[in-house]
Amino acid sequence: MNIGGVHMVGPAQKTNILALTAAVAAATGLLASCSDGSGQAQAQGPPQGPPPVVVAQPVQRQIIDWDEYIGRFEPMQRVDVRPRVSGYLQSINFRDGQTVRQGQLLFQIDPRPFQALLAQSQADEARARTALNLARSEAARSRTLLNAQAVSREEYEARAATVASAQAALGAAQAAVRARALDVEFAQVRAPISGRVSDTRIDRGNLVAGGSTGEATVLTTIMSVNPIHFQFEGSESVYLKYQRQNRAGSRTSSRFAANPVEIRLQDDPGYSIRGRMDFVDNALDARSGTIRGRAVVANPDGFLTPGMFGRMRLLGSGAYTGLLLPEAAISTDQTRKVAMTVGRDGTVTPKVIELGPMVDGLRVVRSGLSPNDRVIISGLQRVRPGDKATARLGRITAPAPGEGPQVGTAYSAPPAASASSSQSGR
After folding, report:
1. In which domain, by residue range, is 344 found?
2. Is 135 inside a domain boundary?
3. How confident is the model at residue 424, as a pLDDT?
4. What is the tally of structural domains in the chain?
5. Phi, psi dihedrals of residue 404, rounded to the nearest 5°
6. What is the tally of helices (H) and strands (E) in the chain?
7. pLDDT tens string 21-32
8. In CATH, what number is assigned to the domain containing residue 90?
9. How much of the chain exceeds pLDDT 90, in percent?
10. Same structural domain for residues 292 and 249?
11. What pTM, to 2 d.p., does this model score?
12. φ, ψ for residue 299 (rounded to 5)?
């Protein structure tokens, strides 16, 4: 209480102050005990050793590089079906989109006008043959009379000239018969090639224009489907690479035929379509710096359709022994690719490497590593160059090679070109 400006402490308040003072003293003693005991023990614990990492030697395997291209399928043959004679379309003898055979009847033009002209030409031929027979008889009689000096030589020569004229007239009549017979034949429009036919461009009953010029009516279009071409374009740089490899003989493999290709479609998980190169153009396009290439692929069931896009890979090298690492073991130092290795003394040493294609989920290392290097494949984030590390031996696991070629896609500057041809080592 407060008496005369002096604050007096009562018995109850004095008891509370004493209890609070004791609690503060106990807490202070506890903190001092922690600082002098367990806390100091933690600060002075044994230091940790070098960080643990997992190391393994690179996998060695026979590698074949494959270069990738984007292209599309094209028919080996494409024909616009046009009539050779004009007339009224009498019948259509196929279904739109049907697969047709070479020589199959597609359209029938009314043949009656051509048949009538053929009959007339045949009659002209018969008349010319009769005239020739008569001229020959008269010439024979004239020769007999000439020998008996009953006619003049001028008359005999006139009879002989009549025979020659009659022979020429018969030849012209026979030619007219063949021409009219062709018109009758051309009234039947048949498939010039085997393949898949498009839809009909004109209905039955219409007048169609024939002839050999571009004015002839297009009736439909046929595209061959088996085999089929795969067209692509490639860069000049890789064309040069192939040319030099072909000259050195290093772009061959006993495992494959000449210039094999493998293609996969947009929804394919792998390269399941196989073929071979059959053409490279004879010049590069000066505007784009690319060259046109082509592969041929079997298509017995007609599944591959002209205009369909695909991704193709082409043999880019012969077989060579390569070293492979997982992507997790490769780090980037600015523009360089680096693999961290651990020496026998535990020192971490970086090695600058040159990378190649992906093969079965592993990356090919073209240079910078030796087969005996111990590369860090796990724990790379725990160490820096020059540090010490505790190396535990691990193993790089790679899928077993498949039946076909190794999946090595060389990432050349796309698109790239094949230089394979009969003149360039195909």
Report:
1. 52-65+320-410
2. yes
3. 36
4. 4
5. -90, -165
6. 5, 26
7. 444 444 444 444
8. 2.40.50.100
9. 46
10. yes
11. 0.65
12. -145, 60
